Prior knowledge:
This protein has 3 helices and 44 strands.
Amino acid sequence: MPSVPEFLLRKLYVPGSVKSQADGYEFQLNNTLLPVTVTSLAVSADGNPIALTDLFLQLSGKNKIPAAFVSTISPIGLPLNTPLTLRVLSGGSLPRQLTIEAETQEVGLLRFTINIKSKKSLAGLFNRPARALRGASLARRVARDPHHPIFHFTPPANWMNDPNGLIHWQGQNHLFYQYNPTGPLWGSIHWGHAVTSDLVHWKRLPVAMTPRRNKPDADGCWSGTAVLTPDGPLFFYTAVFPETVCLALPDDGLRKLHPSPRNPLIAAPPPGLEVEGFRDPCVWQEGPRWYMTVGSGIKGKGGAVLLYRSIDLLHWDYRGPLLVGDLKKKKPFPTGYMWECPQLIRLGDKVLIILSAIISPDEQYSIACLGQYQNEHFKLEKYIKLDHGGRNFYSPLSFDDGKGRWVIFGWLPEEREDAALQEAGWAGALSLPRILSLSKGGELRMAPAPELESLKGRELCAYSGKLSKLPVRLSDDIPIRNACFTTKLKSRKNGNVEFCLAASPEAPERTLITIDFKQQLLRVNTTSASLDQRAKGSVRECPLPGENYLELKTFLDGSILEFFLNDQMTLTTRLYPTQTDDLHVFGSSSQIGMQIDDFRMWELHSCW
Ligand code: DQQ
């Protein structure tokens, strides 16, 4: 059998094709030599053979198959000029050298080694601008996507989740966030970075923290927070895997966060505690001491907030659980088995522990635990749902914005399947800024930040009057996509008022917003909001505040809908209509003559 010289075989490798993926990396070969039939394929990376179960192949236009399926019984044909993508599952870094061995029916064993580093450094000169160009063109495509928000913060493209490290520092509010720069699905978590001086207009900054090979955060820099010390801000975060508490020191005006060489500061959960998780540190100061909460869950009991104490911010003593949920209690609502992103803040004469509870793999929501805190003890008074959209407002984090206000932001995940996210090229947004406060009666309130007024553009309509069973168009004849509408209603004991977001009242794609006085609920139904099967609709309900009037503020931003009821309760949901350029608001009521006052709508401008 003729043998093919290695220098020729090396040409099969597509230069610069090694790309990092959320769960490993991939590279491409292109057969430019002769058609062959492969009966076995093996790859070694930096001299280490890759398990066949971690290696997948995909011929252009064909399905991906595991390398283990390639055998003399089921060989794979490699036609000429048809790129073959090899995908390697790996938790490590990109290889410097790849050796490919393919047994073929026509020419026997083909074996060749490619030196990625040397190719890369040469190709790197061209790769970086090419990557930047690809990034810019993806960002342009994302910005044109009618489902993409314009006045909610997002990265230019790809995946974001939790807000992290919020801090007011030197006149700016800094936002860090969980970010996957490599794609629109969760994975390879970095800390993205942005600033705003007014909570509303944003500037994106370069990535601040990146997972590092052979370090505690090699598998991701997960959630954490900032704390202001006499020496400036410090950042505590979760490094994985295993989950550990780590410290990062800022540089260059917070543009870079450098993990401390002392990491991990807390290498494991408290001994003897059987936990469901151990992550998301949050630090605050009390006199000469520093305290930290860590999110966790105690097996068989429920979600837990673990308390630590330190005098130097480096050495931490476990003080015990600050609050533990009860898996058996279902009232007023279940609090789940694992609590993420806990944060303790003082609000008026109360203390609030904000957390994100995992009830089951399909159900998560954020909760505020209202109570009193003294001498390392928290006395719970009540659990409150922070938002009535379930997981649609998750892992919120608040901060003092330098004006004596607690501002809270949450992560707004998508409600559609991964395939739709891949197609869109982006996933996740930050909620609007919400101001937390306590009412005179001790009720928790959340109002949209007044700074949002600065985004208001043209007023699109103003209406006060009675509604009837026949829906009437309330918005002018201009389709709405990025807008805010508000209205006032008197509370009643019966009947309902309905707003329908659709092209026409009969249109098949419609979102129904119902104020149901009989059941005393605001109900938002998105089950028919989209004809795209990949969009997951839902019915979300929020109790009406027990006051004699209702003020509803609604923010529609592409696929995001955020509702504020009497600046007290909130409900966040998502909608992905396929017909995006013909949305109007129609109003109707179950009984003739139900009055709505001051229905007004404004166009909202972009936050960029
Ligand atoms: N997201 C982070 C975790 C956190 C979770 C990982 C909450 O640190 O517990 O991206 O959404």
